[in-house]
Amino acid sequence: MILSFVAYLSILLFVGISVYKAWKFAEMPLHGRMELYPVPKESGFEHGGSFYEEISWWSKPHVVSHAREIKEMLKEILFIKKLFDNQRPFWWISYALHLGIYLIMAWTMLLVVGAISELNGIHVAASNAGLWGLLIYYLSVVTGIIGLLLGALGSGLLVLRRMFDNTLRKYTTPQEYFNLLLIFAALITGIFYWGGDLSFHTARAVTANLITFTPFAASGLLILHIVLVGIMLIYIPISKMSHYVGKYFTFHTVLWDNSPNLKGSAVEQKVKKALSYRPTHTWSAPHIKAPNAPKE
Amino acid sequence: MINQKDLLPKDMGRAAGEQLIKLELNQLMPLLAPYDKPGMEPPLTDPKPAWKEKYCTSLDGYVGLDTLTRPQTKAEEDEFVRKFLSGLEKIFTDANNGVLEPLLLTFEYCAKCDTCSSACHIYQASGNNELYRPIYRSEVLRKIAKKYFTTSGKLLGGLVGADIDVNWETIARLGEEAYRCNLCRRCAQTCPLGLDNAIMTKEIRKIFSQEMGIAPTPLHAKGTMLQIKTGSSTGLAKPAFLDTLEFLEEDTEEKFGIKLKFPVDKKGADVLVLHNAGEFMAWPENPVAFAILFDAAGINWTLSSEIMGYDSVNYGIWYDDYQAKQIALMQMKVAKDFGVNRIMVAECGHAHKASMIVGDRMTYGDAKIPVESCLPLLWDMVKSKRLKLDPSKNNFPVTLHDPCNMVRQLGIVEPQRNVLKAICPQFREMTPHGVDNYCCGGGSGFAIMSSQNFPEFRDSVASRVKFNQILGAFQGTMENKSIPKYICAPCSNCKGAMRAILEHYEATEKFNLQYGGLVELMVNALVSMKKPFLEFLED
């Protein structure tokens, strides 16, 4: 029962805090333009250019390709393209961790789906099962094994790289080692526990107990694993590991936002609102109060 | 002094007066031929003892912040630290709304993957010196902010990175360190999380200026303050401006037989052309070339003689948001009052960014007037054959420097190279170029910062990668002095940096390396020109 509570609460807090963080960023005051080219949504300027390459740009339609933008987003989300392009050795281990996490997320969902299926009498197994049962079974095996291994390998190697790379060592704080070690510990305890049954029948049974609040006898290792995963899920969104939230805003509202403030545009309304705000803090240098400063 | 390889961010708090690192010529990135031989480069010098007494030379021996002077009393020292911390706190408040979100993102999410270092031309040029690693100064700022303004920093200290001693020397070094970055944002292009170390750098500059009243004299006292007072950062007042134009008209007629008349305050003009006023003083051939081309193409344009109407610069965007806003709004108002349909920014990169990007959200509605770059129009004039051009007149090696503000930060990539491809038979690109270009080393004010030994840092380090790019582009022709080699830099600040590096390396004298803007090449190619417009072709 307590483990069920830990599982539900940690997932709830993970999602809740992440959404709250995203909401806080979304609600932040309008900032000045800081786009950086290439901006993928610029249609017709695939060489990295923009609508500013046109004469009287304001009188022409600003053609935007959301498909290109989504394509770039997917390259970043699924492959961490910028790291691949600019720092290949680091990419291998960082990508192992991230791909591992993606697969573990998929595996967790498959365990839940598998558990619900079994609770409803649908057999999930390697044989004597229907197509659905076979699909869930094999996908769980593949995502679970590869995900746990890649995640543990990636987080472990990132710790080692930070410890033994002369540059990274200088900039890595104890907290940043802790972040990686927490993930590593959560995954290693999982590998030790779930590794005993790679068909993941045990995992599905435990999942079924957890989601239905059914009491069950849990070993010390399983309790440790579930508690560690719970702590990790709550800690990630409050730490800088919540960069999955930040990254959306760095690209979409900063680097890729080149919407000009034209008369009648949505941006104009935001600018109007932002300029009507009177800050509660002011700067103190003498020239800020210069008498010849124009009225805004 | 510390071996730079062992330098840590917290070393910024080391004892008073101790210079953290010293650059050595043999440790810098090697230059390409013909500058790969010993003795081809001026030596690096030590700061004068008097400077050590007066300024902060304890970073790397260079002085960029000439208004930052050592305190005489403990009280002054404490006040300096207090003011910095007060400013640091303010950058996270509504006093800084215009950059709050991007700042918080970069402040919070750096994963310390170090991908940015290989993108930084100053870090590369310095021979990978730790002091110039893009995350070095960002991390120092994070450490101080965490120590004083975060709960985790106050409670856990070094465990979360808040492990730095904060004293006068720490803050002063950080102030200097903010002027070891050109704000080119090349590092931000490579960051897997989309973070921007240039924001952190500029915030340090802003704290110094907006809270502490400390900024380099050429940017502030003789820059934005002078511009707001006289109308131009050159100090060029209206009568002198009009005299200059008259002189240029006479000079153009005398030299080229062209009866030129600059339209000034012309009623009913379509376009108000804004030049960097420095052009009239340092490179008058540039506004002259614009005038010749616009007349030839039949553009209905004018210059303004109103205060703030004849100087496009806005140094505020490099160090002080308040100054930037004042200037941008004053320039906008001049154009609006004048009644033109649009402003066209001539060959000045930071003026492009200031008026088209930074100024874009400073006002709205009827107070705004459309602003555009000169480059698309110049290309259109060539493409539409409105100008009769003879490319053979430009038959010498030409390469293009991409000003960061126009290319990486505005996306104006093709028009200028299209012009060069059409009118320069020996045009060749630098590597890399376009949005991946390197800064000239003069960005964010470096080109005009000439206090103490700062030009040495600029010319030997900040511009080093660019100089190598230039040498690379002209390989095979460099050592033939009879062949002029032209660096096209369509930006006043970039031209300032080019002028400085060519002098520093005596490259014009030794190898006939020339520089200038884009319009000069266009006028040089005009069929109607009876003699070369470019002076170096006259011999």
UniProtKB/TrEMBL annotation, chain A:
Bilayer-spanning residue ranges: 6-23, 90-116, 136-160, 180-196, 216-238
Q: Which organism is it from?
A: Candidatus Desulfosporosinus infrequens
Query: What's the name of its gene?
Result: dsrM2
**Which InterPro entries has this protein been placed in?**
NarG-like_sf
Recite the UniProt keywords alphabetically: Membrane, Transmembrane, Transmembrane helix
| Name the UniProt record assigns to this protein | Sulfite reduction-associated membrane complex, transmembrane diheme cytochrome b subunit-like protein DsrM2
From TrEMBL, chain B:
Q: Which UniProt keywords apply?
A: 4Fe-4S, Electron transport, Iron, Iron-sulfur, Metal-binding, Transport
Record's Gene3D superfamilies?
Answer: Alpha-helical ferredoxin (1.10.1060.10)
**Gene label:** dsrK2
Keyword Disulfide bond (UniProt): no
Q: What is this protein called?
A: Sulfite reduction-associated membrane complex, catalytic subunit-like protein DsrK2
Q: State the InterPro entries in the record.
A: 4Fe4S_Fe-S-bd, 4Fe4S_Fe_S_CS, Cys_rich_dom, Helical_ferredxn
The question of whether Oxidoreductase is a record keyword is answered with: no
Give the Cysteine-rich domain ranges. Answer: 398-498
GO function terms (MF aspect): 4 iron, 4 sulfur cluster binding; metal ion binding; oxidoreductase activity
Ranges where the 4Fe-4S ferredoxin-type domain occurs: 108-195
Out of the domains of life, which is the source?
Bacteria
